[in-house]
Write a structure and sequence with these properties.
3-stranded mixed beta sheet; extended; mainly alpha; single chain
Length: 704
């Protein structure tokens, strides 16, 4: 069995034990081997296998406690209960030697979110004689397990205090930690008063938790009160406490107060550096002086230290932890607070202060500094971009490795400066260094490339996007990625590709109707004006136009309906160029406006306005649209079939093929005349006949 357990095959070992058990009724008497078997069964097989093997092994209470801890790590509440029940049945849960078993059970119930069972386990522990009033560590474990129910936690702690429990600092730190999570300032003050009444001295964790309780509760005055109380108690703040104080200032928006604290931290750090330099100088003198001089030097050093202590006795005490006040974490806290408050110059000034004081910097520090090189929403100045790249060069010269956040921030700066080519060079360097790509970082790269003018940038943006689609899950495009690519392609005029990307986005993400409307309308204008066949097909696919004879505009917005009408006319224009005639009328189903506010046929009115812009005049359609009787009793029979149809069915607009044919003929003749004028004059120009083309009377809107 020992060899099987060494080979990591506990199930085979348990099977051998189960075969021997019915024959010999002998259990495995080796306690160490039994413990190893049960722990491996719980950790690598399942809890049920371990429970089946329990009667056949010999375990100690401590071994069962370790088994309970492993079962809790596997989130097996049933296993914890069964192991504790087995210990009780086997008589292993009584006496002080079973203390570790009960502690493991209390911790396990707390980790599994069962405060009631943890409380019951403590009661059973007392009844089994495994707890005494001097056992404060067990009470601390119980209070941690009850942290999710702060009222019960405080009640139980007070009961035990009244019974004669002697709490320690950890006891009250457990209470304060629960107050921090619950943002309960009142109970935190109650715990502090109990602490004073019991004569327990607070430590670093106590003050740090109190600062966080008031900070999380948005009580900045309480934060300052705790800080003053710390000084009154003679407790010298540590670097961690200074960092919590800076974070509290940032959360409260008290940046001026944070600047004052930062100045105090710099003074303390300079004093610590001076003491360190003096100590190093004395050490060098001692090493050079020799044996006899060493004793004198030591006594001199002791006197110097005492004089330093006495000189500082009347002022602020020296910080704990070797005198270090400004650490890397505290520097990051200060710079982050400045960035969040929009004080970017102050963030970079804090970085320079830390460099001058010899504070070690890491990649995270430089990432925060890079963020401070640009104010969001403002134009990035050339000197700001140069400053960012100077920081990046400094990071590399410090033998630090840039990470994903480094390159993401640089890509964002390149996007603000419209420097797509620089972003592509950075991306090549990123891949060369083996830095992992993420969807956020790559989206920022697309934004930088797409926002930069120049030939081929839109296609480069599309190439990166397609590589992301084929890449691993961490770089799969999200909705922000799709929008970035669509905006870049639309800006570059690649509307067919933009529509294709938008359609692929709609298959996996919710549709953005406003973006869709604007993109489709612009694409339809371009397809009609420039006679782009690929773009025309793309718009038809998006608008779901399969038959140009009849188009249902129900449920469309004004922009969507405009795009659909322009697309239909573009299809007819292509057919006219190929065959020389228009084969059929066009019916546009607009509805009667019953779904609009007040029953106003908004869509119908806008479609008529568009047709007028395109010089497709329907003489009597206006009257029908304005609410003519619609009963067929028109004053006269119009030669235009559209008028009769509009009067008979106010929800439809019929454009006769003769009218479309005339408009397309005028457009063709106008273009021929323009081409002849261009060839004769040697230069192109716009003529008055442009006003009769099959597009709006004014020039088409520029592609945004």
């Amino acid at each position: 069995m020992r060899e099987l357990l060494k080979a990591g095959r506990p199930s085979v070992a348990a099977h051998i034990l189960q075969e021997e058990w019915p024959v010999t009724s002998r259990c495995l008497e080796d306690a160490a081997l039994s413990k190893e078997l049960i722990l491996q069964l719980i950790g690598s097989v399942n809890t049920a296998a371990a429970l089946a093997a329990l009667p056949m092994v010999a375990l100690t209470p401590d071994a069962l406690g370790e088994a309970i801890a492993v079962a809790a790590a596997r989130r097996s509440l049933r296993g914890v209960r069964a192991l504790l029940a087995h210990a009780s049945e086997a008589g292993l849960a009584t006496g002080l030697e079973a203390r570790g078993l009960w502690r493991a059970a209390i911790v396990a119930y707390g980790a599994l979110g069962r405060p009631g069972e943890a409380r019951r386990a403590f009661v059973d522990m007392r009844e089994a004689g495994a707890w005494e009033l001097a056992d404060t560590p067990t009470v601390n474990l119980l209070l941690n397990a009850l942290a999710c129910d702060i009222a019960v936690q405080f009640t139980r702690c007070n009961q035990l205090r009244q019974e004669g429990l002697v709490p320690d600092t950890s006891t009250f730190n457990c209470l304060l930690k629960a107050c921090m999570r619950a943002r309960d300032v009142r109970r935190a003050q109650l715990a502090l008063s109990w602490m004073q009444a019991d004569g327990v001295e607070p430590d670093e964790i106590t003050y740090n938790t109190l600062l966080k309780v008031h900070s999380y509760s948005r009580d900045f005055d309480g934060v300052l009160a705790i800080w003053r109380r710390m000084a009154a108690d003679g407790f010298c703040p540590t670097a961690k406490l200074w960092g919590s104080l800076l974070v509290a200032c940032s959360a409260a928006g008290q940046m001026e107060q944070a600047a004052i604290f930062w100045w105090e931290m710099k003074q303390l750090q300079m004093e610590a550096n001076a003491r360190r330099a003096a100590a190093e100088g004395q050490g060098q003198q001692t090493a050079a002086a020799g044996g006899g001089a060493k004793g004198g030097s030591r006594s001199s050093k002791g006197g110097s230290s005492r004089r330093s202590s006495s000189s500082n006795g009347g002022g602020a005490c020296q910080p704990r932890g070797g005198g270090e006040v400004i650490t890397t974490d505290n520097l990051c806290a200060m710079m982050t607070a400045c960035n969040d408050a929009g004080q970017y110059e102050r963030a970079l000034s804090a970085l320079e202060d830390a460099k001058a004081l010899g504070v070690p910097l890491d990649t995270r520090t430089y990432n925060i500094a890079l963020r401070a090189c640009h104010s969001p929403g403002k134009t990035l100045r050339q000197e700001q971009l140069m400053q960012a790249f100077a920081l990046y060069d400094e990071l590399k010269s410090s033998r630090l490795s840039p990470d994903t956040f480094t390159f993401g921030t640089l890509f964002s700066l390149c996007a603000a400066a419209h420097q797509g080519h620089v972003a592509l060079q950075l991306h090549a360097e990123m891949r060369q260094l083996g830095v992992q790509e993420t969807v956020v970082c790559m989206t920022l790269l697309l934004k930088a490339v797409g926002s930069s003018p120049g030939p081929g940038m839109a296609q480069e943006c599309l190439r990166i996007f397609r590589r992301m689609c084929r890449g691993p899950a961490r770089v799969k495009p999200n909705q922000a990625t799709y929008r970035t690519v669509i905006a870049a392609l639309r800006e570059a005029g690649a509307l067919a590709e933009a529509l294709s990307v938008y359609q692929s986005m709609r298959r996996s993400h919710p549709a953005d109707n406003s973006e869709f409307e604007g993109l489709t309308a612009v694409a339809a204008e371009r397809a009609l004006t420039c006679e782009d066949a690929a773009l025309r097909r793309a718009v038809a696919d998006v608008c779901a136009i399969t038959d140009p004879r009849e188009v249902d505009l129900h449920g469309m917005s004004v922009l969507e309906a405009r795009a659909a009408v322009l697309c239909v006319l573009a299809l007819l224009q292509q057919s006219f160029r190929e065959s020389g005639h228009v084969a059929h009328d066009v019916t546009l189903i607009t509805g009667r406006g019953r779904g609009s506010a007040g029953g106003d046929p908004v869509l119908r009115r806008h479609v008529f306005a568009l047709l007028r812009e395109l010089h497709l005049e329907l003489p009597e359609a206006e009257d029908a649209a304005d609410g003519s009787t619609g009963d067929g009793s028109s004053s006269s029979s119009s030669s235009s079939s559209s008028a009769g149809c509009a009067a008979a069915n106010p929800g439809r607009i019929v454009i006769p093929r003769e009218l479309i044919h005339q408009a397309l003929t005028r457009k063709m003749l106008s273009r021929q005349a323009q081409a002849a004028e261009h060839s004769s004059c040697g230069q192109g120009g716009q003529t008055g006949s442009e006003s009769q083309h099959l597009h709006p009377a004014s020039l088409p809107p520029s592609i945004p």
